[in-house]
Design goal:
By secondary structure, the chain is mostly helical. It contains 7 helices and no strands. Helix 2 packs across helix 6, helix 3 packs antiparallel against helix 4 and helix 5 packs across helix 6.
């Protein structure tokens, strides 16, 4: 019961902070700019979901798993494969968006002023996707993937097929119950 109350209070606080943020942003930028922002944001969300589907969580999970096994080389291999897959997934949508930004802004979004914002989505996507996770954000141990170095992973996710293995179990801390070093996931 206490956890339900905690989740409820946290949800209410999150909504209140979001409300205050929107009010402040609207006052600073104005209603017109906020309207353009709200036209562009769904395009960004779609691009982000197309390119980063499970990659960051998978890298976090596998990094923690391989760190628990003491295999630093495998961590870097997962990182490299995830970066390559991210660029492979991002290339086509980003190129199409750059080539057809004028048509998307006028015919799909209904406002030609959104064109610049659409073009700026490409670098934003690259900075907030797997590239940022793998290259810019490092944990205290120097390992990529968002593992915080004290036994907690990021959100659970599985990237086993990307690393050339079957799906790994999603768990926290890089170790599951009954794990023995040198043996696969239990």
């Amino acid at each position: 019961m206490a956890s339900v109350a905690l989740l409820t209070v946290t949800g209410i606080l999150s909504q209140a902070v979001g409300f205050a943020y929107r009010v402040g942003l609207t006052r600073l930028a104005g209603a017109e700019i906020m309207g353009l922002y709200q036209l562009i944001l769904p395009v960004y969300s779609i691009l982000l979901s197309l390119t980063s589907v499970g990659l960051t969580t998978g890298v976090s999970n596998l990094s923690a798993w391989y760190q628990a096994l003491g295999d630093r080389r495998a961590i870097w291999q997962v990182r490299g494969q995830a970066i390559r897959l991210f660029f492979l997934l991002a290339a086509l949508p980003c190129i199409l968006l750059l080539l057809f930004s004028d048509a998307v802004s006028v015919y799909l979004l209904g406002d030609a002023r959104t064109r610049l914002g659409l073009m700026l989505l490409v670098p934003c996507l690259l900075l907030t996707g797997e590239l940022a996770e793998a290259l810019l954000l490092r944990d205290r141990t120097g390992l990529p993937g968002g593992h915080d170095g004290i036994g907690r992973d990021g959100p659970a996710g599985c990237l086993g097929p990307l690393a050339g293995q079957g799906p790994l179990p999603c768990h926290g801390g890089g170790r599951s119950r009954g794990h023995r070093p040198g043996h696969g996931p239990v």
